[in-house]
């Protein structure tokens, strides 16, 4: 459990949520639109415009096309489910579990996050985030609540593996509150 400065003990700065969103952003960057992204990420850049009926057996071509359509369809389904935090089957066939609100930091947290944002509000914010259902909107949301701070100046000769520091916030009807990473994230 968190005993002292929760930020100081964090080596991996971004939470599962941020990692997940960032991963998807890098995937999305491969293509200009959602549909073409799905196609390119599923088929490794196969040219959709290639008319295989001109160069091969028509029966095989139809099968090939059908398989590609099925793959693209499965890929789109998985993507849609992933974007809203539901369980899905990855491209490698791995079953990825549904996103759930984790326990958080508990009473030992020095920020007392649970007394600032109650569990119901936390649940609500979690669902609101996943209901955005779109990487861009989720990124926009995170940009508003996860703020990067400049690294504190270290003494001469002191070495630190810590490169970035983040502040995590939750917003509710009463305002914006800084919380610890454990409370904010999914770990
Ligand atoms: Zn906390």
Describe the structure in your own words.
- The protein is α+β, with helices and mostly antiparallel strands and 187 residues long.
- The protein folds into 2 domains: 25-96, no CATH class; 101-184, no CATH class.
- Helices cover 43% and strands 11% of the residues.
- It contains 7 helices and 5 strands.
- The strands form 2 sheets. The protein has a 3-stranded antiparallel sheet with strand order 3-4-5.
- Strand 4 (165-172) and strand 5 (175-179) form a beta hairpin.
- It is elongated and about 70 Å long.
- It starts with 15 loop residues before the first helix and ends with a helix.
- Residues 1-15 and 20-55 have low confidence and may be disordered.
- The protein binds zinc ion.
- Zinc ion binds next to helix 7.
Instruction: Tell me the strand order in the biggest sheet.
Output: 3-4-5
Number of helices: 7
Give the biggest sheet.
Answer: 3 strands, antiparallel
The arrangement of helices and strands along the chain is HHHEEHHHEEEH
Structurally, the number of domains stands at 2
Structural classification: alpha+beta
Q: How many β-strand runs?
A: 5
Beta-sheet strand percentage?
5-15%
> Level of helix content?
40-55%
* Distance from first to last alpha carbon: 12 Å
What global shape is seen? elongated
Mean pLDDT: 73
Unreliably modeled segments: 1-15, 20-55
- Identify every distinct bound molecule in the structure, by name, code or SMILES: zinc ion
Rg measurement, Å = 22 Å
């Amino acid at each position: 459990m968190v005993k002292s400065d929760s930020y100081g003990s964090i080596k991996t700065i971004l939470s599962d949520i941020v990692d997940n969103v960032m991963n998807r952003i890098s995937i999305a960057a491969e293509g200009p639109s959602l549909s073409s992204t799905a196609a390119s990420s599923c088929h490794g850049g196969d040219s959709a415009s290639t008319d295989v009926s001109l160069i091969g057996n028509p029966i095989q071509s139809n099968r090939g096309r059908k398989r590609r359509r099925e793959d693209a369809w499965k890929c789109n389904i998985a993507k849609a489910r992933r974007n809203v935090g539901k369980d899905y089957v990855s491209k490698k066939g791995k079953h990825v579990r549904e996103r759930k609100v984790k326990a958080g930091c508990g009473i030992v947290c020095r920020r007392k996050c649970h007394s600032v944002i109650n569990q119901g509000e936390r649940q609500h914010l979690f669902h609101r985030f996943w209901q955005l259902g779109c990487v861009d909107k989720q990124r926009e949301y995170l940009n508003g609540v996860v703020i990067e701070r400049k690294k504190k100046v270290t003494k001469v000769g002191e070495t630190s593996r810590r490169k970035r520091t983040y502040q995590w916030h939750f917003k509710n009807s009463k305002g914006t509150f800084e919380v610890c990473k454990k409370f904010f994230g999914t770990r």
